[in-house]
Task: structure prediction
Amino acid sequence: MPGRFAASAGPASSFWDLLIALTVRDLRVKYHGTYLSYFWWIARPLTLGLVLYFALGRVLQLGVENHAAFLLSALFPWFWFQGGLHGATNSFIANAGLVKKVQFPRVILPLSIVFGSTFEFLITLPVLGVILMFTGVDPDWMWLVGLPILLTLQLALLCGLGVLVSSLNVYFRDIGPGLDAGLLLLFYVTPIIYPLDQVPSSFKPFLLLNPLTPLIEAWRELFLRGTMPGLDLWPSVVFSVLSIGLGWFALRLIGKNMADAL
Result:
């Protein structure tokens, strides 16, 4: 295996060739021996959506119009974010042998995980579209225009954060468990299971500081109303640029001694 990647990482091979090769490898390893891999990825947001629909819509009677579509339009992008960031965290540690034996751009390891989770999200979008139609949402041509914008923005955010946390995790192994707690908190401070307009005005400014808040709201507006992403996305754009910069800086700082630390 190291020999094969050594060849791939040679002068004749491009950055993108190696990124694609590692992305495919990660997906094959992840779903090796499974026959229902596509189903299991879809089952996670669908199962949680069903539980939340029953608990919030039927038991607590939150009073959200088309509650099933409201939940699923945010849960699918959330699971993409959560899975990509969580998977990227241990990408250097899980590939310690490769890092020590082969010279190649280290950034490819967390990016391959992020791109793999992005691919999983993309192939589930048709299923989400069908489910939304069954709940009464009419398809809109704006989906074709808005999807690339939101995909690019969330991918940029994931790439920056993925490189940052994976780099820090090389020296600070508490990053992994801490991230689990942080993602759980982030899930509840992002308007995924509740409407933003039902948040008390005293708390709303804090939620708007969360870069996922405008992003999740934009996904929901696009899917449910066919509304194009607008200037409200600026916190997500700013945070994405910052995360890419911080990720690049952390990798440059840690990358020199990464093999020894692993």
Observations:
- The chain is about 75% helix and 0% strand.
- The radius of gyration is 19 Å.
- Residues 2-261 form one domain.
